[in-house]
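PROTOCOL LOG
Step 1. Enter all chains and additional molecules of the complex.
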Amino acid sequence: MASLPKRIIKETEKLVSDPVPGITAEPHDDNLRYFQVTIEGPEQSPYEDGVFELELYLPDDYPMEAPKVRFLTRIYHPNIDRLGRICLDVLKTNWSPALQIRTVLLSIQALLASPNPNDPLANDVAEDWIKNEEGAKAKAREWTRSFAKKKPE
Amino acid sequence: MGNVPGKIDQEDGFNDARPNLSNNTTSSDSAAKQYEGEVSSRVRARRTTSLVNNILNGNNSRPRAGSNISSTSRRKTSREKELAKEAHAKQLVVRCNETVDGGFLAPFGCYSFEKLDYDTTVVKNLIIKRKLAPFYTPLQDFDESWTRDELIKIVDGLPLHDTFDENLEEFEDVPIGNLRKSAYNELIDKSLSKKEQRRMHAKIFRARLYKKRILWQENENESFLEKKLEMRELGNKAINLKDSQNSQAKKNCHFPSDDLKYTLYRNGSECPICFLYFAAPFNYSKCCQQPICTECFVQIKRADPHFPHDEVDPTEPPTNDNEKDPNLLTSEPANCPYCATANFSITYQPPTDRETGIGGMPPDTYVYKECITAKPDASEPHVSVITSDTIRPDWETKLNKERSRLMRRSANATAIHISNRLIDPNHSSRRNTSNSVTPIQEESTSASRSPEPTINEIEDQMVREAIRLSLEDQDNRKKSKSRNATLRP
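Step 2. Run joint prediction.
Step 3. Record the structure below.
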């Protein structure tokens, strides 16, 4: 395996030494391009009090190519599908090499706070969200309680 | 929307991403050692004879007499393409005697070789004209507390090019044969289909080019180190040089003086994209005045040709890309990585206090002078602007190529689709016939039977399509004739 680019080393160091509140990201021992991530559900969102696990992978062409991120914890959200794939512009066409792991994870946290049912990935959830927002949010809260429970410290 | 192919990419990425899957180091290790031996023996050979050097410097691209005499013109163009790719790869070699203001004309190698697809001639010219910062050798880190001597020592230890990943997984089982020979047809498995053979040919070519590229750079690295050693020996000797040593020094005048090394890196800064420390001045984005090193700048390019991404209505079934009009394919100019302004471009203010190398004084004679001139204003009108398209002038050709490729593919798909519909009724009749009938008989019986109405319809459809195409053809011919007529009155 090729040596790890300086950028990845520096980003990792910063993530560990100066973590973003509510977000953790730790590289895997076997592959330093593969991160285990947790994101706390934003306050006043249906995901509040939930801790969501994600996986993040930095492809060979990172930072010219966006990191690949996926939810491992089940989540009821119009822009996240059953397999945990995320529909987020900065992970696709709007990726820029000036963005970082840190900023991407913050964007995902922001996506939890403000779902966008008009550009959906999970069609059924999006329809539900448009037709009956309160009901959909209740379901999201229920899923958060059952799948994204905070582990006891 | 869940079934759109594009969205599945991400999942695919994870398949090879899981850490415990990348566990094939042991198998490639022995190959690596073997290859290392090969390389070092080759480098040794270069010192005693120029044979290898000849080979590496283009003799390998000479078509071998007697081979491919009967090759068609189409094969020639694919050979030409290969030669162009080799020439491109050769241009990416960092050469220690080609310097501008303390930097080089080719990248250090922060990004993979396959991703260096910019126009090397354009970029080299821009660097020589001081319109784009040269490719500096990066420092992994920089510490303000370093003394002058410490910094010079560190700069002295810098390599010409980053280390190579010698054994890419991609080329693991690809034979490369003897790199000294230009022909490698014997490596191709003749039992494969034509298409497979072509694919194998392309893969072997890429694997060979990758190794050759490494050898070219290593060759250059070797002479760089040798010259460096000579310099050091000279430096250790007395200052009043004898004539012979003087000429030796002249030969090595491409090497920076200590003053230059110090000036270069003392006031450098970190590129916000690769996080490496480079000599200043940087290129700056025209829109938001953010610094970017040249190595990162040449990576930023237009999006690959794609269909416009439109807002999708969740209640409508997604349209397949195959059904879209190839002319809709677009490719937007690159955006600024910092502020997302369209049509990314940079400006560059060359240093006024160290014009060395090509178009300047020999780097070894550079003496640091306190510079009093005020820092020039970046918004000066004469500052030239370089866009991402400037260094990839072929983007439009590429877009059109992709369009016509897609058109051909959809035409093929239509043809296959129609022929499948022709065959299908046979399949259903096969299921209906009794076991006693052999497949051949079955075919003939189904053929002799009165065809089903759908076949008639399809035949009609095909005839109509054929007529339409030939009419269109004729139309086009007429048009071009009349155009020619107007051209030649």
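Step 4. Note key features.
The longest strand of chain B covers residues 345-348.
Chain B touches chain A through 39 residues (CB under 8 Å).
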